[in-house]
Amino acid sequence: MTWRYALIIDPVATDVRGTDHAATFRVVDPSAPALSIGELSTQRGDGIFESIGVVDGHAQEVGPHLERLAHSAALCDLPAPNLDQWRDAVAVVASQCPPGECVIKLILSRGIEHGPTPTAWVTAAVAPDNTAVRERGLRVVTLDRGFDSGAPVRAPWLLLGAKTLSYAVNMAAIREARRRGADDALFVTTDGVVLEGPTSSVILRFGDRYITPEPGAGILHGTTQMSLFAHLRDLGHDAAYETVHTDRLGEADAAWLVSSVRLAAPVAAFDDVSLAVDADVTASLNAYLLRPRD
Amino acid sequence: MTWRYALIIDPVATDVRGTDHAATFRVVDPSAPALSIGELSTQRGDGIFESIGVVDGHAQEVGPHLERLAHSAALCDLPAPNLDQWRDAVAVVASQCPPGECVIKLILSRGIEHGPTPTAWVTAAVAPDNTAVRERGLRVVTLDRGFDSGAPVRAPWLLLGAKTLSYAVNMAAIREARRRGADDALFVTTDGVVLEGPTSSVILRFGDRYITPEPGAGILHGTTQMSLFAHLRDLGHDAAYETVHTDRLGEADAAWLVSSVRLAAPVAAFDDVSLAVDADVTASLNAYLLRPRD
């Protein structure tokens, strides 16, 4: 049985400073019943989450993940999370993680139907072995995300910048990619603007220039992408946010899908167009991502 | 404390004919822990559901609800539900319902992460008192659903005809409607085609003709709408599926948002255009919907 761990935060969103947050954490058996059937997360995907990579007990980029949790909460009209409480919970869970790579998930649900407060819990598990995924290239298919590039600003109720628990479409897109013989998907708008993968950000390299789609274009602002951009700039590279049209995908000199647990996975093809996998740069990016980062 | 009831179906999707399905039902306390934190319904809204109205212990339109559950399962690549098993579960739960109106929910989740089988449960609760909602008119705002009318056929991975647990956008749309001082929302496509409410179908009356948007246009095929159309045709009315453009909304002689629990709620306004509430027809429709139906 693979190692897993879970704790429930109760109560959440308490604003009291100096509270002994540990007293609000209750360790639960990950495989035993812990949530009631009235949970809105189960009935309506009504809540938000974050996935944080852990390397040898160090939770990576906790600050940016917590900032995004707060941003998602605001977009979804959830009470502002008490970030100190969440940070303490992550520290407790990370301290339990075995050596090697793990994943911590933060979940903030709207709570019990008609209940007074949200429900929150944090889980940890050993990460799948992504060694091969970080070396061999992914075959990626572009999939229409249904909306045009104006939708995120025009219709904020579509929650396009929030990391909600309503991930059924993201999961369906990955199944569609597999059905087409590919490994993963890349969402694009109806007007041909590149968005993100179902569980990743995309980074493209043109010459010595690294680009990624503008945050705010209906995508999440990727924590791993942000960290890599800071790293690339430290190394003297140009790394920029740009609107990327689909016809530029095949012209990239290299590309990666990046996320908190899989890290940087090189792209070997977008649809029918092959891309070179830059093994050296990929190895260097993953070496950086595997070092402790805050 | 309002009455609630719940049972878990375990195992689900067993194909064995003549199985004693009752042996697969386990009654659980609705407010006690019953689901593990590894449930994909909680983490990704990855599953499907149905809400069934119950009147004096009679579950309404169980057949059409089960057919739609099977349709949603197919769209989401979930194992085909064993409809006999679900029907028996609904019967058990309905037999526990107190007199008056209740709601039964069927939930089929993809199950535990990396687990072998889906998770399924059925809940029941006393329905909210919808008497007033069925008489006074709802103020309804139209909200852009983000996609155009071609998206459902072009991009089936958007799961637009499936009743999935990923309902965060539906809930956000209702909050947006309330923020605008309205009672409910009506989704429309970017090219101005009327879809459905976040938790309802829309029926419009022009003269003696009742129309509703085409199923397959990125909406659910409403069980209450179907039942009402059969009833209206029995009464000699014309009831038809049509593509409805938003500019026709204000020209309707009457309109209703219809759903399994709220039943037929008359519309008093679409955006800034007032509609007459036809109290007699509305009362007649709801009298029909409150009679036992199979």
TrEMBL record, chains A, B:
InterPro entries the UniProt entry points to: Aminotrans_IV, Aminotransferase-like, BCAT-like_C, BCAT-like_N, Class-IV_PLP-Dep_Aminotrnsfr
Keywords assigned by UniProt, alphabetized: Lyase
Entry superkingdom: Bacteria
SUPFAM superfamilies: D-aminoacid aminotransferase-like PLP-dependent enzymes
EC number: 4.1.3.38
One term of GO molecular function: 4-amino-4-deoxychorismate lyase activity
Family label: Belongs to the class-IV pyridoxal-phosphate-dependent aminotransferase family.
Name by which UniProt lists this protein: Aminodeoxychorismate lyase
Source organism (scientific name): Microbacterium aquimaris
